[in-house]
Amino acid sequence: MPPLASFFLRRLASALPVLGVVLIGGFLLLEAASGDAVDSYVARSGALDAEQMAQLRTEWGLDQGPLYRFKAYASALVQGDLGWSTAFERPVGTVILERLPVTLLLMGCATALAFFLGSLLGVIAGARPGSIGDRVLSIGSLALYAIPGFWLGLVLIVIFAVDLRWLPIGGIETIASGKSGLARLGDIAVHLVLPVASLAMVYLALYLRLMRDRMSEIWRDPFVKALEARGIARRRIVWHHVARNAVLPVVTMLGLQAAAMLGGSVVVESVFAIPGFGRLAAEAVARRDTPLLLGVILCSAITVIIANLLVDLAYGKLDPRVRAGR
Amino acid sequence: MILWRQLNPEGRAGAVLLATLALMALLAPLIAPGDPLALAGEPMLRPFASASHPLGTDRLGRDVLSGLLYGTRTTLLVAFFSAAVSLSVGSAVGTLAGFLGGIADTVLMRITEAFQTVPGFLLALAAISVTGPSIPTMIFAISLGTWTQAARVTRAEVLSLRERDFVAAARTLGMRPLEIAFREILPNAFGPTASLAAISVAAAILIEAALSFLGFGDPNRVTWGSMIAEGRTVLRAAPYLSIVPGLALVVTVLSVHLLGRGLSKTERLQP
Amino acid sequence: MTEPSVRIRNLSVDYGDTVALSDVSLQIARGGRLALIGESGSGKSTLAMAIAGMLPRQAHVSGSIEFPDLDRNATPGRKPKLGKDIGVLFQDPGGSLDPVMKIGDQIAEVIMTHQGMGWISARVRAAELLDRVRIPKALSRLNNYPHEFSGGQKQRIALAAALAGHPSLLIADEPTSALDTVVQWHIVNLLDELVRESGLTLLFVTHDIALASERADKIAVLYRGKLVESGPSARVLGKPEHPYTKALIGAHISLETPRGRRLAEINGDDLV
User: Fold this and answer.
1) Is the Cβ pair A230, C92 closer than 8 Å?
2) By a Cβ cutoff of 8 Å, what residues of chain C touch chain A?
3) All partners of chain B with 3 or more CB pairs under 8 angstroms
4) Is some CB atom of chain C closer than 8 A to the CB atom of A2?
5) Considering only alpha carbons, which residue of chain A is nearest residue B198?
6) What is the DSSP letter of A90?
7) Cα–Cα distance between B231 and A197 in angstroms, integer?
8) Which of A117, B157, B203, C212 could be stapled to C35 by a disulfide with Cβ–Cβ 3.0 to 4.6 Å?
9) Phi, psi (rounded to 5 degrees) for A35
10) What distance in Å separates the CA atoms of residue A302 and residue C83, rounded to the nearest whole number?
11) Which residue in chain C has the smallest CA separation from A244?
12) Percentage of residues in chain C with pLDDT exceeding 70?
């Protein structure tokens, strides 16, 4: 087997127990929620009398013990059946798959912005620890780190969409614009600017600080003195050596922050009325749609696991010591 | 006072700000112009326009300054208890996992990992959807997503501590394993865990605000998040209704971070 | 007598209250091998770093360090360029290399900086240098990372990087004291060979009096920041004038230490 494929399989296998725990937690959530599948069936297809409901419960095995119900729930999940969304009157899986791409796009753009701009500014701050530029960036990042994304979104809307009218106020694209191809992509990009900025800023601040702090440690590493002794230009030492070494923990942090960012997209999507996966979670709670909420939780766990896997792959590419050990 | 002298200027600024906020929360009934939920005057009064409503009124004529002051109570209450719960639960789980080892460790760490895999905000949403919104359920819901970090840090610390001399001494003295874990090891492992306090408090403030913003907060209490949401409906006409409570949030979180950084000598613990 | 490679006049270095070097005057002959000996804190490393121009910013320096060779072929009084005029080899072989860069690139970047070569020819040159420092199968190992080499090999690679800019003076600060005896011996032989082949001037700092006596033409002895004695190795070791030098040699002989044992381990505490 090619090493990459075997790495993937091994990682997925090690994620199975974690998914198992999430599954059990989800089942407990379903049990704790008021009302069962029959109640929601009644809610969408009209009145049944008590006798009919009891009959249906027997049919669906809901009168059996919790162990039986868990088995039924788990085997449905394994077959890819996430259940029926009572709020959307469609299978949960379909609803989620419709909403997921937008959120992945939003998160991808926000991660890219936070990582590149954050580490770039981190390098500028970390190039000369203690300098004025460093202090300004450090204090700025601390302030940025304290700003809630959803509030930042509202402020950006007030400035750029309401006052200046430069950017759309919300949504993911102009409705019924009839645009296609590049024009549509451009339209989506324009709609993404503000939500991506609001979601990314906290992480930008985090990566900036991490990069800066790690760099100021690496400057004390003896190999930097050796590089200076070889007459390597300072600019090259900053970018090719110190920053290159300092980026490794930032990449690790990308994986750790995947879950937090997915959580952040719930609020940001609500602020910008983006029909995404995050807002689906809020809708599921607001409309008491427990199967949908459960589906959202399971899918977000899988998304986070895959994101971490990708980060680990990237880390292996960046750190030769890890590559050798694998 | 000794602590004060050890703090750097950043930490002192944070401490002063937090103390002011705590004072505002405690004295809210005395200094607020009125009941934050009562319709106190003309709706949509601009800030500084009226002496009886210094920061103006919202869409329904509720006093903004009162809301802001009472909101401090909710924010600080929820943040403090969420952080306390998540740190104590996390360090208890971490101590057990690290001290017991073996299968118990594996199971506990798998559970911790599972909690880390699901976004904390989604966990909070799910919990609220089951329990309904109130202060205690909010604290419970927020802690669900934030205890894992403390568990990991404590476990790592316990693993390094459990072979030390004083633990061996406790064994010879005949202390029971759990007694050793919680009376000898946990207090010693708590240092690094406590340095997570600032991060936990800040995270709790932000999660609480986001939950209230989405309308999942206690409807009978004023929170900054619900004020922002309320102001959002008139964002074009009166943006300050959303901006002012948001600024309060930023100042609070910032002062927590400043104090946290000042307290932890090693800057890296505080990203 | 030709011009020396380095001429030091009345050099003093202090860090505020602590004096690291006081009033040191010394010459290093072109193509010569000078050993700086003394125990920890004697100022020998400070002297080496002062010559390299690598003292920390807070150091106060007075006196002069001249490089007559540089004056002759360029503008007079120009400062030597690190890497191009002076190569430095440090004690810790692991700490001399960037852990996440291919060793070929680490050597090539020195060549590109000082020789103005393109990347491809610099890599070829890097392979030649690795070959010269006896890294087996040099060409195929250009793409390896530092952690894939042993301590001794890392020190050879660091040496290749230090020599990549064709410096005329090599300063080696305890280059072998972090390595075990056999590896030490190989590195020292290699240094010897390079000095003979290319007419390099070598200044090495060491604890090891045996090493100094075998490999240096001249020895300078530092004690508490002062130069107490200097001259040809045979003279300094055979007829030491200063009591400290006598003590150094005495301690070495009386204990019959195996060659290569560090001096400071034997007598550091008695003398200070």
Assistant:
1) no
2) 52, 54, 81-84, 87-88, 90, 92, 95-101, 109-110, 113-114, 145, 147-148, 158, 161-162, 164-165
3) A
4) no
5) A146
6) E
7) 21
8) C212
9) 85, 150
10) 52
11) C100
12) 88
Closest-CA residue of B relative to A148 is: B206
Q: Suggest the residue from B109, B144, B206, B223 to mutate for an interface test with chain A (most A CBs closer than 10 A).
A: B206
Does the CB of B237 have a partner CB in chain A at under 8 Å?
no
The set of residues, in sequence order, having a beta carbon less than 8 Å from that of A17 and lying 6+ positions away, is B110
A210 and A249 in contact (C-beta within 8 Å)?
yes
To test the contact with chain B by mutation, choose from A31, A86, A119, A150 the residue with the greatest count of B C-beta atoms within 10 A, namely A150
- The answer to whether C114 contacts A226, with C-beta atoms less than 8 Å apart, is no
| CA distance to partner chain C, nearest, from residue A304 (Å) | 28
Distance, in Å, from the CA atom of B165 to the CA atom of C76, rounded to the nearest integer, reads 66
Chain C residues with CB under 8 Å of A227 CB are 98
By CB neighbour count within 10 A (0-12 exposed, 13-18 middle, 19+ buried), where does B84 fall? middle
- Measure the CA–CA gap between A9 and C60, rounded to whole angstroms: 61
Q: Exposed, middle or buried, B51 (CB in 10 Å: 0-12/13-18/19+)? A: exposed
At what angle are helices B240-263 and A132-145 packed, to 10 degrees?
Answer: 120
Q: Which residues contact A37 (CB under 8 A, 6 or more apart)?
A: A60, A62, A83, A84, A291
Q: Which of A154, A210, A281 sits opposite B228 (nearest CB)?
A: A154
Say if residue A264 is exposed, middle or buried (CB neighbours under 10 Å; 0-12, 13-18, 19+).
buried
Strands C33-37 and C201-206 come out as parallel
Element at B74 (helix H, strand E): helix B64-100
pLDDT tens digits for C66-94?
A: 888 765 555 555 678 888 889 999 888 77
Strand partners, C226: C223
Please state, in angstroms and as integers, the Cα–Cα distance from residue B113 to each residue in A13, A258, C168, C257, following that order.
14, 14, 58, 57
> Could you tell me the pLDDT band of residue C45, with boundaries at 50, 70 and 90?
confident
Task: Compute CA distances A72 → A54, A61, C152, whole Å.
Answer: 18, 8, 64
Name residue, tokens 């749609």.
A289
The structural domains of chain B, ordered by start, are 21-27+61-269 (1.10.3720.10)
Tally Cβ neighbours within 10 Å of residue B267: 14
pLDDT at A148 over 90: yes
Tens digits of per-residue pLDDT, C155-203? Answer: 999 999 999 988 889 999 888 777 777 788 888 888 888 888 888 899 9
Q: Rounded to an integer, what is the distance from CA C229 to the centroid of its chain?
A: 19
CB nearest C165 (choices: A221, A226, A231): A231
DSSP C81: P
Number of neighbours of residue C212 by Cβ within 10 angstroms: 26
DSSP string covering B123-176: HHHHHHHHH-S-HHHHHHHHHHHHHHHHHHHHHHHHHHHTTSHHHHHHHHTT--
pTM of the model: 0.87
Query: Any chain C CB within 8 A of the CB of A236?
Result: yes
User: Are B185 and B203 contacting, i.e. CB atoms less than 8 angstroms apart?
Assistant: no
* DSSP state, residue B185: I
Minimum CA–CA partner of A259 in chain B: B119
All residues of chain B having their beta carbon less than 8 Å from the beta carbon of residue A283 are none
**Are the Cβ atoms of A240 and C101 closer than 8 angstroms?**
yes
**Tokens in use for C195?**
């000095």
- CB atoms B258 and A148 under 8 Å: no
What residues of chain B score a pLDDT lower than 50?
266-271
Calpha distance C191→C209 (Å, rounded): 17
**Residues of A in Cβ contact (< 8 Å) with B246:** 148, 151, 154-155
Residue among A221, A236, A324 minimizing CB distance to C109? A236
